């Protein structure tokens, strides 16, 4: 068998050291191409808008509404909703924004009263969130005729007398 021996001691070889420099230009180009692609192809969320009916001062076609067809919701502080139906000798009820609260009242009254008109009266003590919640409930219960009107001193008098 052959045996190799060094001629005059071990031969030392030197390794070439290369710098660790990477060219990042192609990666940056790819990143900007991907970014441009996703920005141009994404669809943005569209705002969901609910149709809101507000009473106008000058309505040419005013239809008469029977006082028995009116349901009034008075929004008060601490998420309380006082409601009464009719105009003459109303009996006031109290509910809140729970699952068995406003929605139950609206569904029951909508089944009882044909062509019902809901008057929403947010008080100065109620929160804007309560108004939005009421509008959502009206939309869910599919009530077609509703109006947002100003509260009156008679509303506060009824609430104070009811002591609910």
For the structure shown, list the relevant keywords:
single chain; 164 residues; alpha/beta; Nucleotidyltransferase, domain 5; 5 strands; 31% helix; rod-shaped
Model description:
With 164 residues, the chain is an alpha/beta fold. 31% of the residues lie in helices and 15% in strands. The chain has a five-stranded mixed beta sheet, sandwiched between helices.
Helix-strand blueprint:
Elements: H1 25-41, E1 70-75, E2 80-85, E3 93-96, H2 102-112, E4 117-122, H3 128-140, E5 146-148, H4 153-162
Parallel strand pairs: 1-4, 4-5
Antiparallel strand pairs: 1-2, 2-3
Adjacency order of strands in the biggest sheet: 3-2-1-4-5
Largest sheet: 5 strands, mixed
CATH architecture group name of the domain at 67-162:
2-Layer Sandwich
CATH topology of the domain at 67-162: Nucleotidyltransferase, domain 5
The run of helices and strands is HEEEHEHEH
- Detail the poorly predicted runs: none
Structural class: alpha/beta
Q: Number of DSSP strands? A: 5
Shape: rod-shaped
Task: Compute the average pLDDT.
Answer: 78
Helical amount:
25-40%
Over the alpha carbons, how many angstroms does the gyration radius reach?
37 Å
Number of helices: 4
How big a fraction of the residues is strand? 15-25%
What is the name of the CATH class of the domain at 67-162?
A: Alpha Beta
